[in-house]
Amino acid sequence: xxNTTLTxxxxxYSSWSMRGWLLAKFAGLEFEEVxxxxxxxxxRAELLLLSSSILVPCLRHDGATVWDTLAIAEYLNExxxxxxxxxxxxxxxxxxxxxxxxxHSGFTTLRSSLPVNLKGHFPGFKIWSRAxxxxxxxxxxxxxxxxxxxxxxxxxxxxxxxxxxxxVVTRFMTYDVKLEPALAAYASTIMAxxxxxx
Length: 198
Description:
- The protein has 198 residues and is α+β, with helices and mostly antiparallel strands.
- It is 54% helix and 8% strand.
- The chain has 9 helices and 4 strands.
- It has helices at 15-26, 41-50, 69-79, 90-105, 108-113, 129-149, 160-174, 181-192, 194-197; strands at 5-8, 32-35, 58-61, 64-67.
- Strands 2-1-3-4 form a 4-stranded mixed β-sheet, with helices on one face.
- The longest helix has 21 residues, at 129-149.
């Protein structure tokens, strides 16, 4: 699979790039990582050749070009069905799809108020009430999933839901969001993954 490439911007500042990269790693896909800065005019021209929407991540694999993190997740599940990206059981699979779909399409205030920055740490950061509502919803999702699965991941074993929520974990670490013990343990589990360490 030497011809497989994953074009991303920054795993440090781009939650979508981090998600796409984690998903490809979780799938066990061998790929060449292409990093480009979307604010560089020459990089934008190059991205247009890779993806007409200028969206990253963009996966090129075996003749297919797939952009949008959700599309990449589903494509990777299709080509690596035994990687465990989704739970085996139908109802759990549906639930997993619902919660990673929610992070994909929602939480806009959380994203704008607490941008991803793995290198930053801002103790005592003032969180707006609308962002707090997003944080509360994320905590509810995590709490319910962990209570049902028993952990250590949202569905017991690591799935694409954990890849989708990993950048949220980093946001909580960066902005010193206080978590109850079970959720703090989940956040620590995510941060300790070899892929996150890498």
